[in-house]
Amino acid sequence: MWKTIGVAAVLIAIIYPLTNRTYNSAADAAKGTDESDVRIQPVAKFELAKAAPAAASGPKDGATIYNTVCGACHNTGAAGAPKVDDKAAWAPRVATGKEALYKSALGGKNAMPAKGGAADLSDAEIKATVDYILTKVK
Description:
This protein is an all-alpha fold. It has seven helices and no strands. The chain has a domain at about 60-135: Cytochrome c-like domain (Cytochrome Bc1 Complex, Chain D, domain 2), CATH 1.10.760.10. It has helices at about 1-20, 25-30, 35-40, 60-75, 85-95, 100-105, 125-135.
């Protein structure tokens, strides 16, 4: 019996130092700086943030507003909008007069929302844009 205890003690004395090495386990890696954090990061991150308002640089001219807001529909004819180069489509609209066109542009008409969907534009800017379009369609 003492032989068995002696052999067990010797085996423990030999095996314990071999198994008690310091390895970086997943639990230990979380404590320190390790490449595992980098390896398990998602491929991409997506964050929604509110856009900062553009700096107010004064009123915009009709051409700029047309190219940024109105041209999307009036260049292509999307949603039934008359193309700016189609004088025949504009003739009945031009015949109603500027005030009627201003009213349509400010309040919306058919599929076009009020102010073309750019509610931040002033009435004067919308009227300048209508004047710009009229120079193109006449």
